[in-house]
Specification:
The chain is α/β, with parallel strands linked by helices. 32% of the residues lie in helices and 26% in strands.
Length: 251
């Protein structure tokens, strides 16, 4: 239990069934009575590590049921890493083995699991994702149940998709809800031209969205990384809460 000024939260390790696959997940939820919107948190390349667990707990303290499924379950069950060069190398190796259709299937399974929980408002589900997870939630925004998406520094959206095929940006017309995307202007892995491409495509297809650019590098939201930028992280978090409040709490 984590004590807050308002209430407490409960955290649990759970399994999400998807056919024969059992997906490990970290669940955080308010303990108080009632129903709440739900958020699916998608990891960086480093697994459902302390940073991702912390994000789910922060969301629970804000009045959401938050769940972080292990999107490497098919490849590396139980994988969790830090941020050393070796961790980055193995995390990228696993990322290269993922496939868009499997990722979407696993997120759909997470949605189905959330709908079985008595505390969840079934018509108020969103996502948040970081790094590779920022790309994955852009994909997942095409799922009809997803009303709000917060995508942090998702690389490769204009020129790739997990497992190969047409780039994820080509699926922009399928996005159903509102998308907020957050990028660092000093991110060596995501050229600003790519950010501009994403914004242009969202505008072209009239997808409700906001793009936020910060004077920061990749991973600026994670306080466990050397690229952490406290000012940018605080501003982005406020915007995430604004998005979820408007699109999920009032749903």
């Amino acid at each position: 239990m984590t004590k807050t000024a308002i209430d407490t939260i409960r955290t649990t390790s759970v399994k999400i069934p998807n056919g024969d696959l059992q997906i490990d997940a970290y669940l955080a939820e308010p303990t108080k009575e009632g129903t709440f919107p739900a958020i699916i948190a998608i990891q960086e390349i480093f697994g459902v590590n302390a940073h991702i667990r912390d994000v789910t707990e922060r969301l629970a303290k804000e009045g959401y049921v938050a769940i972080a499924p292990a999107i490497y379950q098919r490849i590396a069950p139980g994988f969790e890493a830090g941020y050393t060069p070796e961790d980055i190398e193995i995390g990228r190796k696993y990322k290269e083995q993922t496939k868009a259709d499997e990722l979407l299937s696993d997120i759909q399974a997470a949605i189905a699991y959330l709908k079985t929980l008595p505390k969840v408002k079934e018509d108020a589900i969103g996502t948040i994702g970081f790094c590779f997870g920022g790309h994955v939630v852009y994909l997942a925004a095409t799922l009809p149940e997803i009303k709000a998406t917060a995508s942090f520094y998702g690389g490769g959206i204009p020129n790739s998709t997990p497992g190969g095929g047409d780039p994820t940006i080509t699926r922009t017309p399928e996005i159903k809800g509102t998308l907020y995307a957050f990028f660092g202007e000093q991110d060596a892995g995501i050229p600003l031209t790519q950010v501009d491409q994403i914004e242009a495509e969202l505008n072209k297809h009239q997808i409700p969205h906001s793009i936020f650019r910060y004077n920061a590098g990749h991973g600026f939201f994670c306080d466990r990384r050397s690229s952490y930028n406290a000012e940018a992280a605080a501003d982005a978090w406020n915007k995430v809460l604004e998005l979820f409040q408007q699109k999920l709490q009032t749903a």
